Amino acid sequence: MSTAPLPPPDAVQNILLWHQGALGDLLLAGPALLALRRHYPQARLTALGHPGRWALLAPTLSLEAVWDSAAAAWAPLFAPDLPLPPLLTARLAPFQLALIFSPQPHLGLPARLTQAGIPAVRWLPSWPGSGREPVGAYQAAHLTRLGVCLPQEPFHLLVSDAWEKQLPSVLAAANPFLAVAPGSGHPKKNWPLAHYYQVTRSLAWSHGLAVVWLAGPGEEPILPYLRGLAAAQDHLLLAHLPLTAVAAALARCRIYLGGDSGLTHLAAAVGVPGVLALFGPTDPRVWAPQGHGVRVLRAPCPQSPCAPAREITCPAPVCLQDLAPEQVIGATTTLLPDS
């Protein structure tokens, strides 16, 4: 794949942004995507990936369209021995530039996109394969080699007024509030629910905070327990909302508590004043969300972080079990405006 500088702005009218990663990975790429938008201010940007995740970036990047990468229409791009269907080449013909975000360079995809008529195709890494370099800095170095400079300010998502209309009316009475997201993409990255129960009970009592629990499809197995925890403490549980509605809810909250998850990155991206991110096996030097109000609390285990790249190999998440609720309560309290 070519590592030549990107074509000049006056030569590019349409750009295809290909990113199929998880929510946290996509938001970590936010500064790179914003840099590309500013480098090509007049270009029309089309995103290809998970529509629900990309919808979060649509107002910030002024996206022209979002295409679903799971659609069967893209399958021929991964079948190099078959001719490209005319409908597919016609769909890709307007683009002068395609940028592919992935952990490793695709072997055949750039050639197929070029074959489809896109003259410039470039790869950007989703994350560093090894080492301790933050994702944002790693991507910035690659963009610099392509002739693009990243903005210096922290990445911030614009929250659309339309997203507010997706929120349940009961949320209007829960301000200011503490948002809690106990799940993640891997169970070994999750702090014990019993610890969350102790912390939310203490903070609600001591600081008069309403508590809103957030749960998505990944939390389906623990949803009965979350319902019980929320009901026992008269808290609000928001389950299976669109990500745009979750973003609108987070933009209203005063403080956020969660683990190494996409929702923690989302909380930082919408500008929650205080974000406490709990890290165990994964390395916050690489994966921590960025923002002025973000604080990372690491597990006390001497082997933590123990996950090379993204592979969590420890047999049990002992590190997070040993992170005491009292320590989290103290750290959360320091993030409150009146502390």
What would you say this structure looks like, in words?
The termini are far apart. This protein has helices at 23-28, 30-39, 51-54, 58-61, 86-92, 109-115, 135-145, 161-164, 193-207, 223-232, 243-252, 262-269, 284-287, 318-321, 325-334; strands spanning 14-19, 44-49, 63-68, 97-102, 120-125, 177-181, 210-215, 236-239, 255-259, 274-279, 294-298. 34% of the residues lie in helices and 18% in strands. Strand 10 (274-279), helix 13 (284-287) and strand 11 form a beta-alpha-beta unit. With 339 residues, it is α/β, with parallel strands linked by helices.
Secondary-structure blueprint:
Layout: E1 14-19, H1 23-28, H2 30-39, E2 44-49, H3 51-54, H4 58-61, E3 63-68, H5 86-92, E4 97-102, H6 109-115, E5 120-125, H7 135-145, H8 161-164, E6 177-181, H9 193-207, E7 210-215, H10 223-232, E8 236-239, H11 243-252, E9 255-259, H12 262-269, E10 274-279, H13 284-287, E11 294-298, H14 318-321, H15 325-334
Parallel strand pairs: 1-2, 1-4, 2-3, 4-5, 6-7, 6-9, 7-8, 9-10, 10-11
Helix pairs in contact: 9-15
